[in-house]
Write a structure and sequence with these properties.
- By secondary structure, this protein is α+β, with helices and mostly antiparallel strands.
- The protein folds into 2 domains: 118 residues, Umud Fragment, subunit A, CATH 2.10.109.10; 30 residues.
- The chain is built from 3 helices and 8 strands.
- Strands 1, 2, 3, 4, 5, 6, 7 and 8 form an 8-stranded antiparallel β-sheet that branches.
- Strand 4 and strand 5 form a beta hairpin.
- It is elongated and about 65 Å long.
- The protein starts with 7 loop residues before the first helix and ends with a helix.
Length: 156
């Protein structure tokens, strides 16, 4: 972005869309940090829809790209494809843009592609499995810690 641009909001106001590299793991496997890009268009007066990927601002100054899993009267429930817990009631005013396309492994994809739309529905439907996986991983960590503790107590 131009050095005179002070925020993503200003960039979207001036240009209408933004292409940026992905940061973090919350949208894997769709977007991988350091490899993939995404393009969002400035959100207008229209509401985002369930399954849309939106760019929103988490106070005070963190920008997040996650998927809408539920549309509420005043906002949205939003979830990363690689996350187990939702952010509930994200206000409409904090949603800055909606994903229109992305580059995955060097190939550009539109948010209108049938394959992508199927992937979006599967990502949302898979949330209960991600929660179960996260809980199971927590139990396994506790069990391993307990076994290590007992092993150390026995002097092995």
């Amino acid at each position: 972005m131009d050095s005179e641009i002070r925020s993503i909001e200003q960039y979207l106001d001036e240009n209408g869309s933004l292409t940026y590299s992905n940061v973090g793991v919350s949208m894997m496997p769709m977007l991988k940090q350091g490899r993939d890009l995404f393009t969002v268009r400035k959100k207008g007066a229209e509401r985002a829809r369930k399954y849309d990927v939106v760019l929103f601002k988490r106070p005070p100054d963190k920008y997040v790209l996650h998927r809408v899993v539920k549309v509420r009267p005043e906002g949205y429930d939003i979830l990363g494809d690689n996350c187990a817990s939702r952010e509930r009631n994200v206000p409409e005013a904090r949603v800055l843009g909606v994903l229109t396309s992305f580059v995955h492994k060097g190939k550009e994809h539109s948010a209108e592609e049938k394959g992508y739309k199927l992937y979006s529905r599967l990502a949302v439907a898979g949330q209960p499995l991600r929660i179960l996986r996260a809980k199971a991983a927590g139990v396994l960590r506790r069990v391993r810690k307990l076994f290590r503790k007992r092993k150390n107590e026995k002097g092995e």
